[in-house]
Amino acid sequence: MSLDRSAVHNFAAGPSPLPTSVLEEAARGLLNYNGTGMGVCELSHRGKEFKAIIEGAEADLRSLLKLPDSHAVLFMQGGGTTQFASVVLNVLAARRLAHASTPTEQYEPPVLDYVVSGSWSAKAYAEAQRLALNGDGKPFCVPRLAASSKEAKYTSLPSAYDFSAGAALAFYCENETINGDEFAGVAGTDASFPFDKVPKDTVLVADYSSSFLSRPIPNIAQHGIIYAGAQKNLGPSGVTVVLVRRDLLVDTTAAMKLGGVPAVPIQSEYKTLADNGSLYNTPPVFPIYVSALVLRHLVAQGGLDKVAEVNKAKADALYASLDAAEATGAVTCVVRQKAARSWMNVPFNITNGREAEFLKGAEARGFRQLKGHRSVGGIRASIYNAVTLESVHKLCAYIDEFAAAA
Amino acid sequence: MSLDRSAVHNFAAGPSPLPTSVLEEAARGLLNYNGTGMGVCELSHRGKEFKAIIEGAEADLRSLLKLPDSHAVLFMQGGGTTQFASVVLNVLAARRLAHASTPTEQYEPPVLDYVVSGSWSAKAYAEAQRLALNGDGKPFCVPRLAASSKEAKYTSLPSAYDFSAGAALAFYCENETINGDEFAGVAGTDASFPFDKVPKDTVLVADYSSSFLSRPIPNIAQHGIIYAGAQKNLGPSGVTVVLVRRDLLVDTTAAMKLGGVPAVPIQSEYKTLADNGSLYNTPPVFPIYVSALVLRHLVAQGGLDKVAEVNKAKADALYASLDAAEATGAVTCVVRQKAARSWMNVPFNITNGREAEFLKGAEARGFRQLKGHRSVGGIRASIYNAVTLESVHKLCAYIDEFAAAA
To answer: What is the H or E stretch that residue A169 is in?
Structure first.
């Protein structure tokens, strides 16, 4: 059976849906960009056409996020998983250069503070532990837990924070795609990240992959590094946006010469990317092009305050249906702390052995990609920017109906 | 003026032209993949649709290249520039693990042999030198030149080779995109890489970015690692194919624990990618999808022997016109060693101050992206797989006409 796009409501956790109008324009650009007789993937990344695309994307991103000029915008490759390492490598190099006169044997490996609130921040923490390894020598850094909600199986955010004075970085993941908990939760501010507890000289790092562009970023200027894989609210997979405060654009080769830091592949050096306008080598042209179209689309919609209004309406509606269904015993919401509920990824479980029945009915109604992450199972409805309020209302109606039929 | 694709002949050095039929199919898939009602960029990379795409791409690649099962196929991100580092990191880890019982203080940094025949191999060599840096400690490796044609300004291949017994790797770049020299040159075998001089235990590494899939790969099984950015003959930029002999799929964390090796970001570990079928994290879905379509297209054309026949005809025709024009004094070919002439990238200079005249006439005839790399200037005609013999004949006719009008 061949389906039309309008017959389908795509709740994928990522790669996730994109606006149809954007995809239509991208399909035209793929064959013939702006009447050049060449497709966008067939143009030099150093030509005037692509230069306009990437510069336009940066300008729209800055305007949407109100990003101050203190921060550079980089378009990189490799996704959030690659940034787990790049963040550590660049921050450690910056720290080493700030102590350039200290001989390596006297240089103390810096502490790295991690807030672990779900699967992705746990992975970031694990990567820092790997990069600390230095055989028989001193470790390159000392990663530690500043907070964790692992004991609560990530069904809430951490309840206590213990940041280290002098830590080189403090890391958090704003929205946990798999677990469904988020700092700037739906209910309001009481679950927000404790920005005031992070020491002033510590580089604040946020993984924003799955909530990027869903609303304005609180305290954006306090962050040293914010990164996001595109494949949620921004564009197709294959490009990662990294916002870096300019004092972190450092010469990693000089740090490697000093010693006491892990090696930094040149392609992971933020300074190299910044110095070359993200064109040190060939960038992922098509993912950047589609991201640029999505950014234009968001600007045309009225910016992130408008986007946030719609997203709040979507999340409120879905959680209201789930709470009502939970009261009947038909479902349980995974995240127990209401203020920590993500408004992008909504995991829930179907009780009484009715999961297959739920999924079958969902499939028949055109709902797609509702299965939870393979590591946790259950159901997950991701309601990114390109999922319409209408699609969410249809899902809500189905949940209401399903709960009533229990 | 809006142009049709048929009005344009695209000689870009990369990102470069793709077959129109492939782009037409990709444009449909972008909106609605196989009647799912969802575009290919909106599908989970772990779903059955994308699994079929990436597995099909690997199967077609193996069949086209006659790649033995001793080698894994990885789809990575970051381009050749990222592989400059990844190659070194994985090979050094493998070497360290092969000497696991040697204490770090007694472990001798291995020699890495580089053949430098142009700008890209020079960059690969420079990256190895960076990664050797270890502050006050022993270097992680000892990169050295096994051969170089720098003195000839890369207008020929190296004339002598001096590989080290016991070197951990021997690196060469099969085709130099900027300089236009290539080991398996158009004229025949006399410029070929000296495979028999590489010690048996040395890992042979080839950067194949700009000649990948232009013909069969000579001595493919002797190589430990072959990599290629997609954006020449394979697909859109954003994906890099890496062929790795399975003994090089090693646990880099274990090597880092032993010490004496540079840190390896997890995303650069070949083993992790191989263990996860290139889906350790979200891959660049669209570039892989289009690459899969191109691979299907090449299989349908009859495989790489057929592709090579057409490419040889294109190169022979273009060099014949250039040689004739050089005889009139109107142009000079950059690469002076005829057997080393690339059949993918053909750089030449227009003499007598007529370059602007040449480019103006070229533009009027629909020839596009003929300017040489910004580092060397001049003209460069890249005649990748998707450039038709007809387009090359039209360029030849123009060169003939231009030379006659001198």
So the answer is: strand A169-173
